[in-house]
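Cont'd.
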Amino acid sequence: MHAPKEVPETVSPARPDRRRFLNTGAVASLAGAGLSLGLVGCKESSNSAAPAGQTAATSGASTIDYTKYEIPPGQLDTYYSFSSGGESGECRIYGLPSGRLFKRIPVFNIDCLVGWGITNESKKIIGTKADGSLNYRTGDTHHVHPSYTDGTYNGKYLFVNDKIHGRIARIRLDTMECDKITELPNVQGFHGIFPDKRDPVDAKINYTTRVFCGSEFHIPQPNDGRDLNDPKKYFCLFTCVDAETLEPRWQVKVDGNMDLVASSYDGKLACSNQYNTEGGVHYEDMMSAERDSCVFFNIARIEAAVQAGKTFHIGSSKVPVVDGTKAANADPKTALTCYVPVPKNPHGVNASPDGKYYACSGKLSPTATLIEHDLVLKWFDGGLKEPRDTVVAEPEIGLGPLHTGFDNKGNAYTTLFLDSQIVKWNLDAAIKSFKGDKAAKPVVDRLDVQYQPGHGFTSMGETKEADGKYFLSDNKFSKDRFLPVGPLHPESAQLIDISGDKMKLIADHSAYSEPHDSIIIPRDRIKTRQVYDINEFPLATKDAKDCRVERKGRQVTIHLTSQAPAFGLREWTVKKGDEVTIILTNLDKVEDLTHGFAIPHHDINFIVNPQETKSVTFKTDKPGVYWCYCTSFCHALHLEMRSRMLVEA
Ligand code: RUQ
Ligand code: CUA
Ligand code: CA
C-alpha cells in the first residue's frame, strides 16, 4: 500500500479536516499508481455509521490522566508484548504499558551481540551449506503466536514465520531464545502462521501440537524451472508443522493464495484469508474480482485423508500433500476445504475469544465479514447450501480495514489503514444489522491513530481469556510524532485503553521497522529461567583448571572458561592456516553476569550468559598477536579481561 504523499505539517488530534485530508491523499496516491479502488463513495457511509452526536473521531486527550499508566522507576510492567520485527528478521520483547524494549531475539537475522549466525550452535539452527556458510542471512518475521493449552497461552513456545525464505522458527519462552528453524518445502511467501489450540480428534489433547502455515505466492510445483511463464499452473500450499519436532506433517494444495491464518478454539478448523483468488500475477489482476475468499480447512478430515494415503508428493519433498482445490472438494460432506466468499482483497482473519466467529477484513472493501464457526461446520456436514451462508454479518466500518482484535465484552477493534483509525464495533449489533434490524448500529467508537495502522491486537485477545484492557496499534507511518531521525522514521506503536466505552489513546511508543504483529500477555503467564544449567551443554568446561588446547593436524580446539575478570587461559598459540574452534563456558553463576568474546580481525564476537557454553570456528590466516577481549561490561576489571591469541607464521 502507498502512503499519502501530502501530510499536514503539524497535526492536532482535534483538527477537523485531518481525516478528509488523509483520505483524499491516500486515495489520490493510490489512484496515481494507476489503481481505481472505487472506495471514495464509501467514506460517507462509514462516517454515517458513527452514532448520532459523535464526531468522526476523538482522542479526548485533555481528559486523560496519563499518570495512571506510568510505570515509575523500580516498578515492573504488567504485560509482556512479543512482537515480530518484519524485515529485520528478529523478534522483540516489550513491556506494557511502558513500551520499554527489553530484548531483541535474533531469529533469521545475524546479531553480533548475541553472536547469532556467528556461533556454531546458532549456525546449526539457522542451517548451513556444505562449506559451513549460512543458508540464509536474511529473514522477514511477520506473525508471532505462542503455544496454547485449553484455549490460552501455556508459556512454552512462540512460533514465528520468515516470509522471504518460507521458514518457521520456534522460540523457547523460558530462555526467550530461538531453538529450531525449519524450511517448508515448496513454499514461497510464507505469511500467516497460527498454532492449533487443541486436537481435532482427541479431546484429551488440549494443547498445541500443530502449527498452521499459509503461503502467499503461487509458484510452479516443483519450482525447478518448469512452467516458468505459465501462471495458470502455479499453486500454493497450506502446511501443517509438528509443534515439537517442527517438521512439516502434511500440506494442502489450495486454489488462490493465503495471507493470514487463524485457528479455531475446538481444534476443528483453521482458516486463511485469500486476496488473490484470481491467481493474478500483477496487482491489477489480483483486484479484478469483487469477492475473494476466506478458505477453511477441516483438520480432522485432512488428517484422515493423509492417514488413508490419499496424497501425492511434489518434487523431492517427502511431505504428503492432499488436494484442497475447489474442483476436488465439491461435495461438502467429504470436502477438506470450504471457500467462503468475502469482499475484495481481504486482509487479516481473527477468531473471536468465545470461539464463535472469524472476522475477515475487506481491505479494498470498507467492510469486515463475520463468519460463524458452527455454520462452517454445518456446511461441512452438508447442512448449508452455499459457503457464503456461513456469513452472519458484514458491517461497513471504514476504509482499508486490516486486522481485528477483540475484548471480553463482544466488541471488535479493527485497524483502518486508509482512514488512520481504530474502529470499535459490536458483534451482536453487526449480526442484527445484517439480519435487517435498522436500529442496530455496529460501529460504537472511532479513534484517530498516527498514522496508517497496519496491525492491531488486544491484550489476551487471541485467547479465550481476552481481558479488554489494551489495544496496541502498530502504525506504518509515524511522520511527525517523534524527533526526526533521518529518512527512515520510527514506526509508531500506540497504546489504547479499551476498558471503557470510549477508546483512549494513552501512549506513543516508537518501534524499529517493522513490527507486523504482537501479542500481549500478562506477566504472570511467563516463567523464565534467569541462569542456564551448565549440565545442558555437552561441550562445557566445568572447571577453569580444565582449560586446554588440543591439536589434531590443522584443527585446534581451545577449551576456555570465563570468570570475571579473566578467561581461563592467558594466551594460546596457533599457526597460520589452522582451523581453530574456541569453546567458551561462562563459569560465573551470578544472574546477569554475561561475558563477551571478540577476536580482532577474525570477525568473531558473541556473548556467553552465566553457565552457558558456546563455540566458534574460524581460520587463522594472519600471523600476529590478537587480543581476545570481553565485550560485555562485567566487572571493575572488565577492560583488563583479555587473553592473547598468538598466531605463528
Ligand atoms: S500482516 S503485511 Cu504480515 Cu497485516 Cu503485515
Ligand atoms: Cu567479562 Cu567484561
Ligand atoms: Ca482479489
